[in-house]
């Protein structure tokens, strides 16, 4: 069996090494090695690694990292009401991944990230009266997929939400291609305002790609983030304990920070 290290393979390997918990495990291994060889600081390194591994799966760490990365502003209800009835707008949802086969549904389905974005996109489309679009193909690392994200989401939107997609762009592999492949389609259809739906952690990277492509086409991009967290300042004991939500949130923020540096 061969494992060609093309771009997708390199990206998968890089993410596996850079995203939690791998860095903490490597640091713990180094600390344990130093401790076993009776080298100074081994115990401290091991302790720090274990503490970071714990924190990397908590909501508190996810909240702090999200705050440091910058959270985009909420698309306020008053703003949504002001857009209602304007004839030149569209709602565009960006893909965040799908599950190739979900046995209970008998086919592919959006993963949690895409499902949350789609639900908000449908909500916005119904309140503004604007048509709904989706952009997402087969990502660089999604080598197991045989259907594009757009084809799966188009079925879900039509069958489950009873709101067929006006545009379903299924050839893009990353955020830059989302913008390059989708915005010309919207401009040709007379769209001038685009409500861009993606997660708050992804919005800065998405805006960088979309605003670059939108300017020559005369399009205005309006951010419509999902996954915002209330800044109420309250934390509970549970927020300091590892959880699946905390772990996924930390990984997502770290992934987006890496992607922004990498330009994807």
Automatic annotation (TrEMBL):
<dbReference type="InterPro" id="IPR003848">
    <property type="entry name" value="DUF218"/>
</dbReference>
<feature type="transmembrane region" description="Helical">
    <location>
        <begin position="12"/>
        <end position="33"/>
    </location>
</feature>
<keyword id="KW-0472">Membrane</keyword>
<dbReference type="Pfam" id="PF02698">
    <property type="entry name" value="DUF218"/>
</dbReference>
<keyword id="KW-0812">Transmembrane</keyword>
<dbReference type="InterPro" id="IPR014729">
    <property type="entry name" value="Rossmann-like_a/b/a_fold"/>
</dbReference>
<keyword id="KW-1133">Transmembrane helix</keyword>
<dbReference type="InterPro" id="IPR051599">
    <property type="entry name" value="Cell_Envelope_Assoc"/>
</dbReference>
<feature type="domain" description="DUF218">
    <location>
        <begin position="90"/>
        <end position="258"/>
    </location>
</feature>
<feature type="transmembrane region" description="Helical">
    <location>
        <begin position="45"/>
        <end position="69"/>
    </location>
</feature>
<protein>
    <submittedName>
        <fullName>YdcF family protein</fullName>
    </submittedName>
</protein>
């Amino acid at each position: 069996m061969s494992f060609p290290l093309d771009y997708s393979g390199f990206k998968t390997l890089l993410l596996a090494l850079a995203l939690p918990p791998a860095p903490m495990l490597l640091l713990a291994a180094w600390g344990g090695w130093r401790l076993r060889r009776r080298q100074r600081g081994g115990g401290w390194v091991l302790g720090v690694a274990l503490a970071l591994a714990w924190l990397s799966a908590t909501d508190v760490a996810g909240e702090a990292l999200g705050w440091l990365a910058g959270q985009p502003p909420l698309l306020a209800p008053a703003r949504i009401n002001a857009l209602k009835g304007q004839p030149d707008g569209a709602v565009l949802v960006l893909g965040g991944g799908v599950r190739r086969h979900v046995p209970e549904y008998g086919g592919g389905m959006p993963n949690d990230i895409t499902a949350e974005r789609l639900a908000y996109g449908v909500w916005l489309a119904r309140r503004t009266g604007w048509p709904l679009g989706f952009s997402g193909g087969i990502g660089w690392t999604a080598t197991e997929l045989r259907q594009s994200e757009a084809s799966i989401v188009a079925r879900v939107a039509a069958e489950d939400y009873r709101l067929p997609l006006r545009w379903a762009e299924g050839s893009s592999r990353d955020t830059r291609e989302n913008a390059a492949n989708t915005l010309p389609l919207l401009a040709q259809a007379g769209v001038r305002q685009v409500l861009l739906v993606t997660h708050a952690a992804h919005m800065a990277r998405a805006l960088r790609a979309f605003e670059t492509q939108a300017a020559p086409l005369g399009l205005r991009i309006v951010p419509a983030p999902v996954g915002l967290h209330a800044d109420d300042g309250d934390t509970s004991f549970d927020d300091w304990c590892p959880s699946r939500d905390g772990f996924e949130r930390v990984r997502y923020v770290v992934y987006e920070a890496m992607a922004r540096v990498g330009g994807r």
